[in-house]
Amino acid sequence: MNSVITIGRQFGSGGREIGELVAEKFGIKCYDKELLARAAKDSGLCQEVFENHDEVPTNSFLYNLVMDTYSFGYNSSAYVDMPVSHKVFLAQFDTIKRLADEEPCIIVGRCADYALSDRDNLIRLFISADEKCKTERIMERFDLSEQQAREMCIKKDKQRKSYYDYYSTKKWGHVNTYDLSINSSVLGIEGTADLIVQYVNDVEKKRES
């Protein structure tokens, strides 16, 4: 497998689990939260900053000002007056490119498809799911009521959409943004992972022909 796969996903769709399964089947790495630690290490910024800004754009001047006290490493003048949320995005952007250069891998969320849009070996996926399936998965995962789970799904998806639409030139969740969009409710986690494996294999065969 020679591709770099990016996965956009609705909250509760199982996108992370699917990515990990696909990575396991191909024998490659899957980066989700692990990306934050790597970006912090590569950039010299505090990991707490990455965690607080993870796919959540903030326009709060005060919050950026306070969190900027944790920001060490980027000393060039280009970064001096930049909001910390932008610093975090650019640091993640650089790390995503670095990971893709190192070896085939899967990167979940964080505008990875946009960061890698110039690559010939990129496969862009989006995982959605029916509201019922998402709600039930979040209820079980976080021990929430049905109403709480539904509200959490709505809030998280709004954050992801806002983050993606703010930093990229495309629209989060729109079919034209991706090579393949899949409803994981139809085949389940394992079945969706198998479908992706087949799709990737077919794409790579076509590239080679």
Write up what this structure looks like:
With 209 residues, this protein is an alpha/beta fold. The chain has one domain: P-loop containing nucleotide triphosphate hydrolases (Rossmann fold, 3-Layer(aba) Sandwich), CATH 3.40.50.300. It is 58% helix and 11% strand. The chain contains 10 helices and 5 strands, in the order βαβαααααβαβααβα. Strands 2-3-1-4-5 form a 5-stranded parallel β-sheet, with helices on both faces. Helix 2 crosses helix 6. The chain is globular and about 45 Å long. About 9% of the residues have low confidence.
Q: What's this model, at a glance?
A:
With 209 residues, this protein is α/β, with parallel strands linked by helices.
Helix content: 55-70%
N- to C-terminal separation? 15 Å
Give me the CATH architecture, please: 3-Layer(aba) Sandwich
User: CATH superfamily name?
Assistant: P-loop containing nucleotide triphosphate hydrolases
CATH topology: Rossmann fold
List the strand order in the largest sheet: 2-3-1-4-5
Task: Output the keywords.
about 210 residues; alpha/beta; Rossmann fold; 5-stranded parallel β-sheet; about 60% helix
